[in-house]
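ok here's the first one, seq then struct tokens
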Amino acid sequence: MLKLKGSIKISGDKSISHRALIFASLSTGKVKISNLLESDDVMRTLNILKELGIKIVKKKTQWTVYGNGTGGYLQPSQVLDCGNSGTTSRLMMGAVSSNPINCTFIGDNSLSKRSMSRLSIFLEKMGAEIKLTKKDFLPLHINGDINLIPMEHVMQKASAQVKSAIILSALNLRGITKIIEKRNTRDHTERLMRYLKINFKKKILSKSSTSIELNGPYEIKPRDIIVASDPSSAAFFIVGALIIPKSMITLKNIALNKTRIAFIDVLKKMGGKIKVKKTKTVSGEDVGNIKVSYSLLKAIEIKASAAPYLIDEYPILSIAASQAKGVTVMKGLSELRHKESDRIKSIITNLSKIGFKVASKKDDIFINGSNEIKIVNQKKIKTYGDHRIAMSFVILSLLYKNKLIIDDESCISISYPDFKKHLKKLSTY
């Protein structure tokens, strides 16, 4: 029987890779980036930066970005195609908004159904001219302006992308920009700023609320960046090792940012045998090794308050829940309806098709786990073009050899082009 054994180094973190490229482009010189994730999404950001006049070259496995400084983007000669990448669209909207250029952002069919107004309302308050050709979606035209008004922004909804976009805009503005988060979000942007010695103030206002204050404009000195390995990508192999008998793996140099590894705490509460050991700090991020071995999982309830820290991992957590004894409840998942697919629908539809007892009520998911499901006839899994749905069910398919057929694995390249190669390396009989 197949099991997962051995150790691998996961590809670079997607969130950090986007930010590394953008901050490097805003620096005043040459920045070398190591372990950059070369996924479709990240390459969208890279190619847009090139279109904005930034020289970027690759030598062997290292990328070099020649920054033009804050406010240094040039007028693009064509539309800026974000493909499937929501991160690209939102971060680059913020970055270009305080440059004296005008540009149009487009995306694929999936991205063109995802809301842009959650960011555009903030940029418009600052004075940016933004035209959405549809009510709330791409294509979007933005007229940037170096004279945008620095101001205080209160973010009622949790979004690390919106926060980061405002920060990127503020870097080129004269005066104080303040961001108040009512619900804390991932802090990769702030960590990278500290590493790059960009001065800003961050205060804890309450257990769940923080403020960030910037006083621009900034001159960002070039500094080489190492991208830590992606914990969200590691999650697929972690769950695989937990649910496949006799598995034992080690994942190396994984980013251990506390806003990104909440899923490990969830899996431990389910009975997962997981050991995490910090080894060093790279470019502002703690990294370490994660050891995982096969475990008998039990169902738990995941509260809505955890959703901002688990949003990317719910698809693979649903796979863990399918093998856990009892009914796992995942609450407050409204954000999942606005990803590459309606992930609540994608999870429920596919698990039901296999034979699991699952249900959804409003924005909650209920999964009655069982490791005794037997599949007689082949079942076709529909990915809906969603990379995380595809990878999650590839992992589950390891338990049902030749019985689960994934309809489209090509979308995996959006976030993890080396996924199948790494899975093959760990797979043994």
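and now the second one, same deal
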Amino acid sequence: MSDYKIISALNEEHKVYLVQSALSDKVYVQKILDVYNIHVYEYLYRNPVAGIPRIINYYEDNNQLIVIEEYISGTSLQKKIDNSDLSVSDIRSYMIMLCNILEALHSMTPPIIHRDIKPSNIIITSYNYAMLLDFNAAKQFSGQNESDTVLIGTPGYAAPEQYGFGSSSPKTDIYSLGIVLREMLGSITPVPDIAPILHRLNQIADRCTQMTPAARYQSVAELKNAVSQSYYPAQHSTSAAGNSSQYAHQNHDNAANADTAKRAIHDSASRFLPPGFRTRTPWKMLLSSVAYLFIIWLCLSLELENTYGAKLWLERIFCLGMFIFAIFCGFNYLNVQNILPLCKSKNRFLHYVGIILLDVAVIIAFQHPHKKGIRHVVKGSHQHTHNAGQGQPQNQRPHRRFRHLPVLFYLLFVQGYPSYKNKSVNFVYHST
């Protein structure tokens, strides 16, 4: 894809690359998927979730899905387990963070189940925050009792129902998360002080990994509550040290929840920023501000022949609206191109043809209503310019109507025509 330059290969076998945007110079992760569910990525693109990489761009090409997503810097949970670089407090905090992520996914309509939760798909950032990656195996949960036809996920972490003996559900993610919890606990050397806590956490892992989904925790919220209560068995002592430890853990959880909330608010607000401001780069925001102010001045200072007063201001506002509309569509504001059949085509040629047609329609709408003659409107004056070769003043020529029909034709027919054959096809143009 010309908009992104490959910097290095993160995982050549799985076609995961580190890329740099040609427009913003920012670094992202590019994944080329042969097996995927485009509806999952489409939904996550429209509804960012705190704790998972944001989907920046995605499109289909030759029966493959190319995904551009946020680059998360940190250390994999697998590496921390291998290096025994975990404390009980870390395990408890990571479990609560992961439960928060899954709770958000499972509460969507329809719910999204990950189906491939494992330590290598969990990144711990420099702020000690757990991030869940890799939604290649994810699907939307329909609620119907349909058996999985193939193994989707990783052996050892996949629930029994993922082997074709049942239907994947939110409880499938609970099973995988229980395996991850068990591995984290296995990396800790048991000592008498934390033995009761480890025992309780192992009991939680045992219940998560029951063979039948009905025997597991019935929701992620129930699992999170159990993890939150895991310290209580060790809090029988009334010593000041014990109380201080309890308060420290509570403060740690509150800080983690605050970070999650801030990230969610930031992600949600960024979606509504106009083109040029989404990257939050100072010089780009300054340049965009100047451009927007110039466009506003240009449109609101237009003088049209035979047009005065309220009608003139309506024309000016119309021109400004169409100008802003063309810009926002060109930069795919709020994924607007996804509802324009030509623009959302998986064929790049048709995609750009749709954008060009939009721009052409807008330009035609801006055309002056008369082919000959110009009316010069001077403040405080009503001078007229006569048309060459004609004896009557230009302002007596009949006003050409229906000059906005090209825009209406484009919006209502070309871009509004339903594309029943491509309902599942989405092409997302790079947005700033």
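notes on #2: The two ends are 16 Å apart (CA to CA). The first helix runs from residue 38 to 46.
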